[in-house]
Amino acid sequence: MPETPVETGGQRGYLRIATEEAFATTEQIALYRELLEEPGVDPGFQSLMGFYINSTAERPRFIFENLQDLGDRRIAEMDARGIDRQVIGITAPGTHVLDRDRAVALARNANDELAAACSTHPDRFTGMAACAPQDPLQAAAEIDRAVSELGLRAVVYNSHVQGEYLDDQRFWPILEAAEALDVPIYLHPNTPPADMIQPMLRAGLDGAIFGFGVETGMHALRIITSGALDRFPRLQIILGHMGEALPFWLYRLDYMHQATVKSGRYEAMRPLRRGAVSEYLRENFIITNSGVAWPDAIDFTQRVMGVERVMYAMDFPYQCPVEEVEELDRMDMPLDAKRAFFQTNAERVFGLAQPVDGGRA
Ligand code: MN
Is 182 part of the annotated catalytic residue set? Predict the structure, then answer.
């Protein structure tokens, strides 16, 4: 834990709401241990969880112990880093590597557990719902239960499900439920699927260093270019890690998307109602800076997306040095924009209705 705690409580004119924070249940870890023993295990899962579950090194131990705490220990770590509130979701790859029945049970139990912790600490925790996309209709029902009955405020979607993506209409009941309930989907990285990962795996680039971003950025693009957002125009999707680099790609995406549609080259890439890829990114996406405490990248993304669509995330417990909080506090940015970044965008996106000032006094 850092030695000099950063203040909480909005003394700088804003609260710090961290929006991509992770937890794991005991059941989840046990299921992952079982899965790692099974033949034909997904290579990305093997690479990621095979490492985190079994390593005795300091960083993986810190991560693993903190993932499994939704109580005083987590709050002490938040206090030490100046984090007023965490928006918490099940850690990668969530239910997505499991078979249907185990996935359904894990989502339900994880949502119950997270909702209980949020009820115990309503001023510190906000929860995002897991679901089991292996059964899309059941997933939609679980999202409805988690939001309507348990009070969770978003869906965390751990990217591909054994190589399948949300642009597949099979999964559209999930998009429909999120849109109807007016909750965002946090599209969180997974390791690349088996038919994408091999060249990255051989170079050690399959995880958070690069593979996560490539896989999840592509997932977001598939949702856009497939036309899914013409069917669900009000849906809001959150992307971490500075939008998985998509804001930086946007000029070329717009140019090449237009050229490709015009050429008729791919059946999967038909004209979009709103035309350009950038229209969808700016109207249906919100970007967080999880893992990227880099003022220049945040400034660029605010200019591309608008100040109201870029918000703060830490990525606890995977990446949480207190120096990153201090660096972002020092950003050369008007106080209103900084307050939007750290606090008020998250309050709007997750429907946090509590007063913004003095709520925790
Ligand atoms: Mn994360």
Answer: no
Classify residue 341 by its DSSP letter: I
Task: Encode burial over 25-41: b for 16+ CB neighbours within 10 A, e otherwise.
Answer: beebbebbeebeeeeee
Measured in Å, residue 317 CA sits from the centre of ligand 1 at 9
Q: 64 C-alpha vs ligand 1 centroid, how far in Å?
A: 14
**Cβ-contact 328, 87 below 8 angstroms:** no
Adjacent-strand bridge partners of 23: 90
CA of 351 to the centre of ligand 1 (A): 21
319: left (phi over 0), alpha (psi -120 to 50) or beta: beta
Q: Residue 255 Cα, ligand 1 centroid: separation in angstroms?
A: 30
Query: What pLDDT does 5 receive?
Result: 64
CA of residue 357 relative to chain centroid, distance: 26
Considering only CA atoms, which of 319, 253, 246 is closest in space to residue 287?
246
Catalytic residue chosen out of the listed positions 135, 254, 315, 329: 315
Quick count: other Cβ atoms within 10 Å of Cβ 11?
Answer: 10
Residue spans per domain, the chain:
17-349
The span from the CA of 361 to the CA of 345, in Å, is: 21
Contact 285, 236 (CB under 8 A): yes
pTM: 0.96
Ion ligand 1: residues, CB < 5 A? 20, 315
Q: In this prediction, what percent of the chain has a pLDDT beyond 90? A: 93
Domain 17-349 has CATH 3.20.20.140: yes
Judged against a pLDDT cut of 50, whether residue 361 lies above it is answered with no
- 110 vs 4: CA distance, rounded Å: 33
Residues 244 and 122: their CA atoms lie apart, in Å, by 30
